[in-house]
What we know:
Blueprint: H1 2-38, H2 40-50, H3 62-73, H4 75-78, H5 88-106, H6 109-128, H7 130-142, H8 151-174, E1 180-183, E2 186-189, E3 193-195, H9 203-219, H10 224-232, H11 234-256, H12 258-261, H13 264-288
Antiparallel strand pairs: 1-2, 2-3
Helix pairs in contact: 1-6, 2-6, 3-7, 5-6, 6-7, 8-11, 9-10, 9-11, 11-13
Amino acid sequence: xxxxxxxxxxxxxxxxxxxxxxxxxxxxxxxxxxxxxxxxxxxxxxxxxxxxxxxxxxxxxxxxxxxxxxxxxxxxxxxxxxxxxxxxxxxxxxxxxxxxxxxxxxxxxxxxxxxxxxxxxxxxxxxxxxxxxxxxxxxxxxxxxxxxxxxxxxxxxxxxxxxxxxxxxxxxxxxxxxxxxxxxxxxxxxxxxxxxxxxxxxxxxxxxxxxxxxxxxxxxxxxxxxxxxxxxxxxxxxxxxxxxxxxxxxxxxxxxxxxxxxxxxxxxxxxxxxxxxxxxxxxxxxxxxxxxxxxxxxx
Length: 299
């Protein structure tokens, strides 16, 4: 008789736990839908930046898809954790709302986009607790890579990196006894002159490769120190890859003329080459660090 009572209590407890999960899930989705309406102008801004001409965030649409997949792979873990509401979530929600209000008045879209993620984090903490938050914290943080930086920051950084890459490339081609002089982003050589454009700065490669490298670091089996090194290494790797691209462009222009480097197939081929070199460089760093490049159990 006692066994029967214990089983009834356990079944009732499981039922109540399931009902609590369902209620929390419904409330979370309803509030998320309301937030979607409030943040609609921000989503439009992000979308326009993703698909703008010469966008630095063409990888943007892939980020939420990857995040959803990562959460889906962890779906089995949700049934194993107990829901325990955390009041810390309320403070994060309030902080996110305040940031959004200030950003809306100042028309600073990127901080408003960040506030959306802060509010989502707060909602997860409040409705589901710290254990569930730990499960989804990386997929949620990964969404940061879909939010574009302000245009002014992009332009200023692009200019500095473009000049640096141009100077490095000039130094390399001079090793081949080719006379070359840089004035700003213009490079004068024996037979021609070339303008080093924004795509050669490497900033676009750094932004997209950073997202790839942190995902790569998350998947591999290694210490947090090695994961951090793997992530940080994406910056010099992207710069080196673009120096190689710019150097080859200058050499080809010097020997075959400016017309050939305007060929779209050559331009696209060089763009693909940059990412191949960068990915191989990232893989090589992983090997040096002795990271176990295996499929990690994400469930």
